[in-house]
Amino acid sequence: MNPKPFSPTLQKKIDLLKAKRSPIKLGAIDFDSPLLLAPMSAICNYPFRLLMEELGAGGTVSELISCHGINYGNKRTREMLYIHPREKNIGIQLFGEDPQAMAESAKVAQEYGPKFIDINMGCPVRKVVSKGGGSALLKDTKKLAPFFALMKKSLEVPLTIKIRTGWDVDSINAPEIIHIAKEEGVEFVAIHGRTRTQQYKGEANWDLLEMIGRTSPLPIIGNGDLHTAYTTQLRMKTTACQALMLGRGCLRNPFIFLESYLEDPKEAYFSPDDYWEIILRYFEYLEDYATQERTLLVQMRKLIVWFVAGFPGVAKFRGDLFKAKELEEVMKISEEFFKELTISNQFAKNIDHEKPFMAGGHG
Ligand SMILES: Cc1cc2nc3c(=O)[nH]c(=O)nc-3n(C[C@H](O)[C@H](O)[C@H](O)COP(=O)(O)O)c2cc1C
Questions:
Q1: Do residues 219 and 299 share a domain?
Q2: Which of 5, 77, 135, 212 has a CA between 20 and 30 Å from the CA of residue 291?
C-alpha cells in the first residue's frame, strides 16, 4: 500500500531535517540515524512504526511478542509479527523465559523479514516476571550464555538485547550482562536506565548509562526520559552511547526524531497543518491494518489525544473527542481543532515533563 503523498511543503521540511542525520552501524546492523524508536506494547504496530520511520526514526523495534504465542500458532500473535514491505530498519522483540521456546519462536519470527531479533530483558510487569521472563532474566546471569548461544544457533539474522540497569539498586549488573552478550555474539545492547524495582519511578540513571557507554565492549543504546527534542539533542551531542532510543517522547511530539536535528530545537518548525497531515497518514495505515471499525476509532482517538497534549484548548477538545461515538465524528472534530490551532511549537506546549506520563510499560 502506497499512501497519499505528503504536501510538498511538509515533505520538504521532512527532507531538510532527514538530510542532517548520519547513518550508523551498530554491530552488523545499519540504521539511518542514531535515534531509534523504543519498543512499546500496543503502540509499536506497523502503522506507528512506519509513520515514525517516515518522520525520522533511524530504526524501530516491534512491541514485545510472546514466544509461546508464536509457538502455539496463536493467530493474533502471528499477526503481530507482520512487517510492512516499506519498513526499513526493523527488529522484532520476543519475550519468554524458556531458551528452547525462545529459539523456536525466533526461527519463526525471522521468516517475517526483520533486520534483527531482540530479547526483552527489561519488562518489569509481574505477570511476565513471575514466569521468569522480561527483567527476571537479569537475575540469574549464569543462565544467559547458553540462552544467547541457543538463540544465535537458530538465527540467521543478528541477535540483540534490551535490558534494564539491573534488578534493583543493590544488583546493578548491566556491565556483566553486556560482557556475556559480547562473548555470545550479541550485536548491541539497549539499556533503559532504571532498575526493575524502580519500574517507571524516579529518573533514568544517565550517569551510569554514560559510564557504560564509555567502557562497553558492545555498542550501547541509551534509553530513558528523552522526552523533548531539546533534551534529545543535548544528549546526542555529548553522549558516550553509540545510539539513543526514544519511547514516550514521540507520543507527545511525533516530530521529535526530526526536531532533534533543528539548529534550535525550541523553534516552531512543524505547523498545525503538518500535524493534521501526519494524523491522516497514520489513519491511512491504520485503515489497512485494523479489521474492525471500533479498533480504528480507539487507536485514532488514543494517538490524537497524545499528540495534542499541552496545546491550548486541549481540555475541551479531549472532552469532545471522548464523547464522539463514530469515527467520522472523531476525525471531523480533530480536523477542526488543528485548523483552528495557531501554535504548534513543541516548546510552547504546556507540559510538565517532571510529571509521570505513561508510567508503566513492558521494558
Ligand atoms: C506503554 C509502554 C509500553 C512499553 N512496551 C515495551 C515493550 O514492549 N518492550 C520493551 O522492551 N520496552 C517497552 N517499554 C519501555 C520503553 O521501550 C522504554 O524503555 C521506556 O519507556 C523508557 O523510555 P522513554 O522514557 O523514552 O519512554 C514500554 C514503555 C511504555 C511507556
A1: no
A2: 5
